[in-house]
Amino acid sequence: MESIKTTVNGWNIMESIKTAVSSWNIMESIKTTVDGWSINMDVLYSPSSWPIRPLSLVAMIIPTYLILLSIYRLYFHPLAKFPGPKLPALTGLYEFYYECILGGRYFEEILRMHEQYGPIVRIRPDELHVNDPDWNEPFKISSRVSKWHWYYRAFGSSQASFGTVDHELHRIRRSPQNPYFTVAEVQKFEPEIEHIVGILCSRLEEAKKTGEPVNISNATKSLATDVVTEFAFHKSYNLLSEPDFAAGNHNMTRTFALVATWHRHFGFILQLFEAMPRWFVALTDPSAVAMLDFFDDIENQTKALIAKHKGHTGKDIAADIVQQMLDSDMPEVEKNTKHLMLEVRTIVAAGTETSGNTLSVTIFHLVANPEKALRLKEELLEAQKKNHGVPLTYQELLQLPYLNAVVSEGLRISTSGAGRHPRINPRSAMTYKSWTIPAGTPVSLTQKFIHENPTIFPNPRSFSPERWVNAADRKRLEKYLTPFGRGSRVCVGMNLANAEMYLALARIFASFDLGLYETNREDDIDQYHDFIKDFKL
């Protein structure tokens, strides 16, 4: 074998290959041609070139993509024809600045856009806003519109009826709750509301004796919390019994509003907070711990109620809202703990901040206008005198014209949420005047703009219950009073909120003469953010 030489016709093959390879620099010489493109393989395989070329490619791709995207959004997007400034048409970062950096101020910028560009404006690359109190197409029940997931995900309640996007799924989730919140059921609950209002009046009586000022904002939010928790699962939080009316609990609501705004833009902030160790959250923001404790408490309450009602199959109005949903015809897949917990959390949160704020702002305006407070007091005392000194029931209070006017004006001027309400018609286009709005486009309206429209409500910043006293005027104005929303998504708790408002105002102003303490409208009442400000009485 050793003597065998690999030769062909005297040609030593191995020696020839060895010589050829040694004289041929493969990496410098190999070139490949593909469809006329000459690729230098030594450059392609050179390790030193790899870190540079991909970065250079990215550096070219990103600006090119952004330029092309900008051109598309400004000139070729389905919404490119609609009026509005260029920056919000280019990027959602415009809204992010007003909402997250300035803290809920985009509603002011939207109003400025309307003043400059007209009743319909493009406020985001993919969203329109209409400021016309007579245009109601997105809220007609027959329209069967959806909510916009991006906007409503802020509240972390996409599995609850409030945050449900699809119209039909919302109907399935909402229907079981409707019987629980009827006028008849609220009337049955009236003694409990009276009892809770009585606790507040006792606290005011104590303050009257000691001369201590009362933070009426915290007091009314505690009242609202105690009412809604007692109504929902017959276990009041008893915040009215807290020495400072649970101030920390109400600061928590403000924290949640801020977190929710960031969560809307990024989609993971709420989960991030829930995953953080409590000690770390406490270092950054103590009120955020209260928010997480609230989430945990609602979850524990829900689990306890589910366990309590396990096996119950009644069809009557249930003892609590959880049993009401468990006994309903809602699909079993919707009766999981997560869904029920989110429903309860949404009901409690919504019934606390909005109702409490409306009541406190109404009280402020009455106290700031003593002649209006006196007129209300005289009406209440006269009606009570005719009733042989017995306080009037909720239904009897509804018959008092000036109290009715005060409640309506309070609901108008206190609009608790300045944020818009986007709706989407996924099936067909909507029409506003000569504009055709493409199907699937989020279209928003803002109830605050309607409530402060000077054409409908002259001198809208003025607290004027008198505008509601005349029957003909009231009939005309009620069309535009939408504090609880419109259409199929109207607030499920509106009957409870109204009863609470009437009973609290009646008992407080029939019994007390209030005065302002270190409070002024500009600093403590007027809304500069899409959140609610506290004030003292």
From TrEMBL:
InterPro entries the UniProt entry points to: Cyt_P450, Cyt_P450_CS, Cyt_P450_E_grp-I, Cyt_P450_sf, Cytochrome_P450_monoxygenase
Binding site for heme: C491
Necessary cofactors: heme
Regions crossing the membrane: 55-76
Keywords recorded for this protein, A-Z: Heme, Iron, Membrane, Metal-binding, Monooxygenase, Oxidoreductase, Transmembrane, Transmembrane helix
Pfam families: p450
Keyword field contains Metal-binding: yes
GO terms, molecular function: heme binding; iron ion binding; monooxygenase activity; oxidoreductase activity, acting on paired donors, with incorporation or reduction of molecular oxygen
Family the entry assigns: Belongs to the cytochrome P450 family.
Protein name (database record): Putative cytochrome P450
Native organism: Hyaloscypha bicolor E
